[in-house]
Amino acid sequence: MVQITYLGHSAVSLASQGKTLLVDPFLSGNPQASVQASDLTPDAIYLTHGHDDHVGDGISIAQRTGCLVVACFELATYCQRQGCQVHPLHIGGRRDFGWFALKLTPALHGSAKMTDPPIYTGNPTGGLITMEGKTVYHAGDTGLMADMELIGRLNDVDLALLPIGDNFTMGIDDAVEAVRMIKPKQVIPIHYNTFEPIQADPREFASKVGDLAEVTILQPGESLALA
Ligand code: NI
Ligand code: MN
Q1: So what's the architecture of 2-220 in CATH?
Q2: In sequence order, what are the beta bridge partners of 68?
């Protein structure tokens, strides 16, 4: 069984057989966060892109625990220079880590650490995560893109985590179109209601998805089991 726990914003943990993969652990400064970064001891972290609301506490958690950080090459190199153990991937590439595999997909977005001047952190990504034979697509931050049709055609997606908050990513109507293309069995909406510009009603999303997929609205701290 894969246990997916929503930690707020785009942060989720995926647990399987006593191991935990953390995705985009933005907890400190996240008004939705359901846990403190210092309470987490993941075995690996996947960072979708270099924006602060995704890298979040990822580097400090990895520095403290020594866990592996997986990200696209430029962002992984940045994390390595901060003392993290890393594994770089890039879009289209898949790597089997034993207890999970990750393939990076495109995401239509930006990616940089917004210092002055900004630090380039490569392409933004989404990830196809395979665990116990289940495929979970974390879309990262992205606008609607035709590549999602290809993701749906080439993968049997059990669960899609899709941003619905608009402004920086897909809004509700585009996310419904994404469900049509990806054809996941289940969907969890993410990246909404954290901040003023990304207010969205997940129940409106669920009703517009209708019977295209089963939508589960998780409050931060709540879990869904994929069995
Ligand atoms: Ni972003
Ligand atoms: Mn974001």
Answers
A1: 4-Layer Sandwich (3.60)
A2: 44, 85
CB neighbour class for 48 (10 Å; exposed up to 12, middle 13-18, buried from 19): buried
Q: Compute the distance from residue 108 Cα to the ligand 2 centre, in Å.
A: 12
Find the 4 Cα to ligand 2 centroid distance in Å.
19
Chain centroid offset of residue 172 CA: 17
Specify the pLDDT at position 227: 87
Q: Tell whether pTM > 0.90.
A: yes
48 alpha carbon to ligand 2 midpoint, in Å? 10
> Is-contact 105 151, C-beta < 8 A?
yes
Q: Which residues surround ligand 2, an ion (CB under 5 A)?
A: 53, 141
- CA 114 and chain centroid, separation: 20
Q: How far, in Å, is the centroid of ligand 2 from the Cα of 141?
A: 5
3-class secondary structure, 40: coil
pLDDT tens digits, one per residue of 20-45: 999 999 999 999 998 999 999 999 99
